[in-house]
Task: inverse folding
């Protein structure tokens, strides 16, 4: 059998498709007599745009439409005119949507005129290889480009077998995709490792795949959806990806001058936190929450093999949460390698400073800790299992260990109030030296999330997100099964509080590059503990605070984040503790000076010991004023 | 007394000997003017020192000798050296300095040129000239061995024929500086990533 694995726009062009890599490896092992080929349609689309637009539509535009417009559906819309065989389909509807929302659609519009020719050429290229089966993997905005190509393939060669899989096919979405698109022969719902070989065996034998768990198939005119699998794929059965054909494709591409290729690896599936406490807004794990992880030594073997084979040191992990066992095996192995890896990892935000230091040593220098909020009540509402002080501590330690921390501030949780945000917004200016959120965003209802599954949590009314109206020509009851995002009446905060939160997040972002708040422990202080805090934050008086005695000890004790009684106990154990009144006065002063953050339960210290290199140093030049202990003391000194 | 955790430390970097300097925090002060323009072993050693400071994310204060060709030489020669070394910490301002040194200060950026170590290869990113950014993978065993050798200033004449050929290739790509019969590698190893780490 000849099998073609296809990944269409908008797969990120600097990354290989993990799904294609895994399935290629799986098929090589389970069906050694088959011929497996790959079609890197997203890469080809970027090349096609560069060529047809004579350099006007570049890879950066691909990212703008393919990755940054997920909540407006622009990437899908680019191909919807081809899918519905009408260049004007959805155009007026999108224009009206964009005008109302202030969305820029110029790049997507410029791309759309090339979509039909691209699908035509892609179909020709694939059919030239005379495949028996073409398998599409679809995640995020890959549905419409994949459907458009699948329709064209079946139009030209009706005997071809078309199979869909991927995250967009999970649960009811897969069945809706199948029953509404007659040219899609099969949809694999859920993980593909067991289902795809079983399906291919049926295709070989010419038998009905009625026993393949989760599969959708046509029984005459009837779309059948087999019961979804009860068992998940065991870690030992998850293959190691094969990226050889992707490497060949990108090496031969003119895009290689524009992009920085990275490897994609998978250590774990599911979420160990979500098994116990599913974050109320999160639907990322679809129907397979059960956490499974490859042993850390095996993951390291995979990374070792891929790095040596592809000569690439940038590694993106797709795990939704790191396996904590990796702090004992995988990460130490990476740290001991002495390679200059640059890895991206999603982690939980309650890591210890030691764990964050190990991530840095291992080259996992880009983390996504799921901070989400700095308000305890909102964190409780989302069942995040972490408090605001701990989140702040993580942000602070990221500075100490030069870890890049990606996060967004989420709001709009049912039950939250303006009161929950008042203190946080007031204190945000004090955090300007820590890495800011990418923005403050209202949550959207996601399929598979507790918010979706249980309307009693607050989102009683929901309908498919408005953007799908310019993406799919389907009735709303079908969209309700097909899509991932839903619109709801806004919950939680709004109005002035929402505006203040967004403004504070924006100010944090713009003030961050030039802001530092750095501790120094000077030598030779006659046995007395002395701490200097050099404040060079945007919006604050530039000065150096000098702390001595119990005040210096308190600031250090609060690096971990502690309640007031716990702090008093520690200071008492130190000897010569302050009175309750003195301590309260100092805590109030330190919060007012932005040296502490008060989350209503705990206090946490804000100064860092180190400052990573930031973009600002590029423009300032080596003037020696970039780090705390080296900062010329040109500010006012103040005792705290 | 309750125990306080030790502050997160930074390992003191092992800098090349040969340049008299003081180090405090991230700030390195070089006590004597450097002679980069004079060429030869001394200039190669100064470049190695600056390269290692950059590798460890240190801020360096140094000035050129005012009778050094980097200060007194023809504009095109000063410009050529300053352009080649733009990724290294720039000299501090001095009265009467050639304008090319101010350009070096203005255009310097952390990580402009750097290398990363892999198992049996190194990758190099060169953005000294933004319009002509380049990536290299050095995995040929002879080239890689030479790249490793010339991390310290090395007499070209002391290299094997293969080594000299490799030096020629590295110099042609502006990844090594050959001066007065000596050669030294130019890309610092990236030991600390900036934030965001995708900046370089």
Result:
């Amino acid at each position: 059998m000849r099998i073609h694995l296809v990944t269409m726009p908008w797969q990120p062009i600097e990354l290989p498709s993990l799904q294609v890599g895994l399935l290629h490896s799986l098929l090589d092992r389970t069906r050694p007599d088959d011929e497996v080929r790959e079609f890197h349609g997203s890469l080809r689309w970027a090349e096609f745009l560069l060529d047809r637009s004579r350099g006007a539509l570049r890879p950066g535009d691909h990212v703008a439409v393919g990755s940054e417009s997920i909540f407006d559906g622009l990437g899908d819309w680019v191909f919807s005119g081809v899918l519905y065989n009408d260049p004007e389909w959805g155009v007026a509807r999108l224009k009206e949507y964009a005008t109302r929302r202030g969305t820029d659609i110029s790049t997507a519009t410029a791309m759309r005129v090339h979509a039909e020719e691209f699908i035509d050429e892609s179909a020709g290229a694939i059919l030239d290889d005379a495949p028996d089966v073409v398998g599409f993997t679809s995640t995020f905005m890959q549905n419409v480009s994949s459907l458009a190509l699948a329709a064209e393939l079946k139009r030209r060669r009706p005997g071809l077998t078309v199979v869909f899989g991927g995250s967009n096919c999970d649960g009811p979405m897969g069945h809706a995709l199948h029953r509404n698109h007659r040219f899609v022969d099969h949809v694999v719902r859920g993980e593909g490792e067991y289902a795809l070989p079983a399906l291919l065996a049926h295709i070989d034998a010419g038998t009905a795949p009625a026993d393949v768990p989760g599969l959708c198939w046509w029984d005459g005119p009837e779309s059948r959806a087999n019961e979804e699998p009860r068992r998940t794929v065991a870690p030992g059965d998850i293959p190691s990806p094969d990226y050889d054909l992707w490497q060949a494709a990108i090496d031969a591409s003119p895009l290689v001058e524009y992009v920085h290729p990275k490897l994609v690896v998978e250590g774990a599936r599911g979420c160990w936190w979500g098994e116990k406490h599913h974050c109320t807004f999160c639907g990322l794990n679809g129907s397979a929450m059960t956490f499974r992880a490859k042993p850390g030594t095996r993951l390291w073997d995979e990374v070792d093999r891929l790095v040596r084979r592809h000569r690439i040191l940038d590694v993106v992990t797709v795990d939704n949460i790191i396996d904590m066992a990796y702090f004992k095996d995988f990460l130490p192995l990476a740290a001991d390698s002495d390679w200059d890896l640059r890895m991206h990892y999603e982690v939980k935000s309650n890591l210890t400073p030691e764990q964050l230091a190990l991530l840095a040593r291992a080259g996992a220098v880009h983390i996504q800790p799921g901070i989400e909020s700095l308000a305890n009540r909102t964190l409780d509402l989302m069942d995040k299992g972490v408090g605001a002080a701990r989140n702040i501590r993580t942000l602070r330690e990221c500075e100490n260990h030069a870890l890049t921390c990606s996060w967004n501030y989420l709001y709009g949780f049912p039950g939250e109030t303006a009161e929950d945000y008042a203190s946080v917004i007031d204190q945000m200016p004090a955090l300007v030296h820590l890495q800011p959120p990418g923005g403050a965003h209202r949550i959207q209802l996601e399929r598979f999330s507790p918010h979706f599954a249980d309307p009693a949590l607050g989102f009683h009314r929901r309908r498919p997100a408005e953007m799908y109206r310019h993406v799919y020509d389907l009735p709303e009851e079908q969209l309700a099964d097909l899509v991932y995002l839903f619109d709801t009446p806004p919950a939680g905060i709004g109005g002035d509080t929402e505006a203040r939160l967004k403004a504070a997040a924006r100010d944090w972002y713009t003030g961050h590059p030039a802001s530092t708040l750095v501790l120094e422990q000077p030598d030779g202080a006659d046995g007395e503990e002395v701490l200097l805090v050099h404040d060079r934050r945007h919006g604050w008086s530039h000065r150096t605070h000098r702390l001595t005695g119990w005040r210096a000890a308190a600031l250090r004790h609060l690096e971990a984040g502690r309640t007031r009684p716990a702090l008093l106990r520690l200071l008492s154990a130190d000897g010569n503790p302050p009175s309750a009144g003195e301590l309260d006065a100092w805590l109030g002063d330190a919060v007012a000076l932005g040296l502490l953050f008060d989350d209503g339960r705990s206090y946490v210290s804000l100064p860092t010991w180190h400052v990573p290199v930031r973009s600002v140093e590029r423009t300032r030049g080596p003037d020696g004023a970039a780090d705390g202990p080296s900062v010329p003391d040109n500010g006012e000194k103040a005792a705290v | 007394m309750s125990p306080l955790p030790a502050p997160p430390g930074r390992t003191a970097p092992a800098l090349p000997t040969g340049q008299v300097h003081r180090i405090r925090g991230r700030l390195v002060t070089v006590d004597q003017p450097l002679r980069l323009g004079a060429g030869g072993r001394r200039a190669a050693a100064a470049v190695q020192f600056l390269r290692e400071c950059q590798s460890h994310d240190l801020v360096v204060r140094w000035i050129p000798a005012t009778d050094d060709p980097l200060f007194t030489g023809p504009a095109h020669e000063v410009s050529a050296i300053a352009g080649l070394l733009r990724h290294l910490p720039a000299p501090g301002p001095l009265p009467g300095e050639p304008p090319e040194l101010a350009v070096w200060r203005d255009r310097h950026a952390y990580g402009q040129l750097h290398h990363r170590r892999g198992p049996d290869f190194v990758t190099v990113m060169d953005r000294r000239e933004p319009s002509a950014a380049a990536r290299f993978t050095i995995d040929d065993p002879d080239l890689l061995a030479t790249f490793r050798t010339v991390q310290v200033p090395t007499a070209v004449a002391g290299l094997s024929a293969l080594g000299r050929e490799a030096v020629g290739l590295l110099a042609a790509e502006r990844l090594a500086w050959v001066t007065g019969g000596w050669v030294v590698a130019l890309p610092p190893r990236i030991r600390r990533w900036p934030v965001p780490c995708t900046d370089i």
